[in-house]
Amino acid sequence: MTKFVLTGAAGALGSVLRGPLSQMCDELLSTDIVDEISDLAPNERFVQADVSQRDQIGPLLEGADMVIHFASIADEAPFEELLGPNFIGAYNIWESAHEHGVRRIIYASSVHAVGMHNVNDGIDLDAPHRPDTYYGLAKCFTEDLARMHWEKRGIECVAIRIFSCSPEPGNARALGSWLSYGDLIQLVQRGIEAPTVGYTAIFGISGNTRGAVNNAKASYLGYVPQDNAEYMAAELLAKAGKLDPQDPQHMKLGGPFAIVPLGESGVAMIKRLSEGNA
Ligand SMILES: Cc1cn([C@H]2C[C@H](O)[C@@H](COP(=O)(O)OP(=O)(O)O[C@H]3O[C@H](C)C(=O)[C@H](O)[C@H]3O)O2)c(=O)[nH]c1=O
Questions:
Q1: Is the CB of residue 11 below 6 angstroms from any atom belonging to ligand 1?
Q2: Positions marked active-site
């Protein structure tokens, strides 16, 4: 009897994962801060919980084999706002996993943990953390927390550094950074099914012709991307017009998050840029 716990189940990506995850286990416990979610799979149960409250999230992990941890503020925000969900929430997940003997955690990390590296550095998985925001810093914290729990307590983790995950590539940057929903599902499935992973970080990116990072050091997971943003190249490049190659938002892996002031919404910045008034 296998039990998985999915946090952030009501979110954009949690919603994509619920169906496939329900097929990979006997019991899926989906949790989120929202009141309810619809269309539960036959073996899925929903429990509302706040990850930043250990007494709420902790008991849900009892009897779980794996946790798929996707709950967080998915944007840059003031540190004080991120502290509960993104930092303490992660601490609560790993402490509770230890308490309940959870074997492995699949974690939604982000490109923003390494967002200040240059695109043309072609980094691999040994590149040091270079967060572009407090949001990215929380991903760095959680990756280090996960590695420490592997090394000190034997809890395995696959940290997927998600780039731009959406149904279709949405802008010129996405020609390099797109992660299709199908490839996200594959990454999560490989993370769950690989026999041993220890602590593994992997870039969550499709097989884009213009992709600028190297996943070779995580090849033992067996992730073989099926999608490539290039089919949208002509349309997206025409829409973008002439790009300034010295603009940090085009030079840095973190894109617009590399230029957003600390504590201010990167998502709002992307919206302003796409409307051409930033
Ligand atoms: C602040 C907070 C949020 N949540 C829930 C609320 C949403 O249903 C969900 C986040 O979903 P959202 O649609 O905002 O973000 P995604 O695009 O799915 O982001 C995902 O990918 C990127 C890379 C990520 O950093 C997120 O951790 C991961 O969820 O977490 C909670 O359950 N508890 C909380 O305290």
A1: yes
A2: 135
Domain range list for the chain: 3-274
What count of Cα atoms within 13 Å lies in the side-chain half-sphere of residue 32?
19
Ligand 1 lined by 57 (C-beta under 6 Å): no
Q: How far is residue 48 from each of residues 9, 29, 34, 53, measured CA to CA in Å?
A: 10, 10, 6, 12
Distance 241 CA to ligand 1 centre (A): 32
Nearest CA to ligand 1 atom 11: 11
State in Å: Cα 126 to ligand 1 middle: 26
Q: What's the complex ipTM? A: 0.97
181 lines ligand 1 (CB under 6 A): no
Phi/psi of residue 37, each to 5°? -130, 160
Is residue 53 within 8 A of residue 107, CB to CB? The reply is: no
CATH of domain 3-274: 3.40.50.720
List the pLDDT tens digit at each of the 278 positions of the chain: 999 999 999 999 999 999 999 999 999 999 999 999 999 999 999 999 999 999 999 999 999 999 999 999 999 999 999 999 999 999 999 999 999 999 999 999 999 999 999 999 999 999 999 999 999 999 999 999 999 999 999 999 999 999 999 999 999 999 999 999 999 999 999 999 999 999 999 999 999 999 999 999 999 999 999 999 999 999 999 999 888 878 888 899 999 999 999 999 989 888 887 775 44
